[in-house]
Amino acid sequence: MVHRNAPLTPTGRLRLARCVVEDGWTLRQAAERFQVAHTTAQRWADRYRTRGRAGMGDRSSIPRHQPGRTCDRIEQQVVRLRTEHRIGPVRLAARTGLAPATCHRILRRHGLPPLTALDRATGEVVRRYERDQPGDLVHIDVKKLGRIPDGGGHKVLGRAAGRANKNPDGTGKGTAFIHTALDDHSRLAYSEILADEKAATCAGFLCRAHAWFAAGGVTVRRVLTDNAWAYTKATWRRTCGELGIGPRWIRPWRPQTNGKVERFHRTLAQEWAYARPYLSEAERQAAYPDFVDWYNYHRPHTGIGGQVPAARVTNLTEKHT
Questions:
Q1: Together in a domain, 26 and 84
Q2: Nearest CA to 194 among 182, 206, 186, 184?
Q3: Which NCBIfam families match (predicted)?
Q4: Residue closest to 179 by CA, chosen among 168, 160, 194
């Protein structure tokens, strides 16, 4: 990278060198013309003679001899531990006896990406993507949560008392199914808590999600789901066809493809479902619409540069305070 105060860019160096080598200028003439030192003019002229145009770029500032550099055997050990166990510089330092900063430099020197860029299960680099327009792709998935009995569960009463509080009439037992449709481009989310994840339930949710996005000026063109039973039945395909939506499915055993909605479900678990102790399932579900509204209209999203999801839908007219 050229220093901001450098008098010569690579293009200027080439012009200077050609004036000396090809046009016969003296070094003093070239130095005066390009406002550089005599030794600078000689350096670029010499590099042009030996390497031509390719020699006009900056060279690495790394010393040719580094007697204090970690030996190759230890560097290969660091690389092997990182590849096999997918651990960071601090844990690598504990295993090798090096400083964490040294391990970090070794990883960078060998071109190994940070752990945040890897799929922890396979070690492969995560390929991130984002559709260009809202509605180009909507991710759909279901999150299951155990219901809270009246009076509170184990988070309020403790393990023993929480088990004893399971009501014999069935209140607080079972599972709540959170259906979510999340726009790939804006991360805008439409979500409902439903009683099951049957094919008819999923199809009905898709119709309501499609109408909600349409009311905000977003035309849903494709939906992406996993290969759950409800999403592969004729009911789902027929509903997509009636709405003019192209259904897509992720590759089996690759939930990362649907990772945006998976991440939304992780957020709701942290910031709504388990954010505070609830005394009943009704109390928790009553707080859910406020959470979704806050997520869409007020919560900065790091995946879209700190914007709120609604800010990426330019014709969304509804106001939220």
A1: no
A2: 206
A3: transpos_IS481
A4: 194
As a whole number of angstroms, the distance between CA 252 and CA 232 comes to: 13
- What's the domain count of the chain? 3
Non-local (6+) Cβ contacts of 42 within 8 A are 27
**Please, are residues 49 and 59 in contact by the beta-carbon 8 Å criterion?**
no
> What one-letter code names the amino acid at 148?
I
Whole-prediction pTM value? 0.66
Between the CA of residue 102 and those of 21, 181, 212, what are the distances in Å? 44, 44, 52
Largest Cα–Cα distance in the chain?
A: 100
The residue ranking higher by pLDDT, 271 or 172, is 271
Q: What angle do CA 127, 130, 136 make, to 5 degrees?
A: 135
Residue 155 is assigned to a structural domain of this protein: yes
Digit-coded pLDDT (tens) for 16-27: 999 999 999 999
| Terminal C-alpha separation, the chain | 47
Q: Is 65 contained in some domain?
A: no
Nearest of 175, 168, 126 to residue 146 by alpha carbon: 175
Please name the residue that has the structure tokens 């799929």: 119
Report how far residue 212's alpha carbon sits from residue 206's, in angstroms, rounded to the nearest whole number.
Answer: 10
Domain that holds residue 108: 72-117
Q: For residue 237, tell me if it sits in a domain.
A: yes
Cβ-based neighbours of 215, under 8 Å, separated by 6 or more: none
Q: Express as a percent the part of the chain with pLDDT over 70.
A: 88
User: Do residues 174 and 232 share a domain?
Assistant: yes
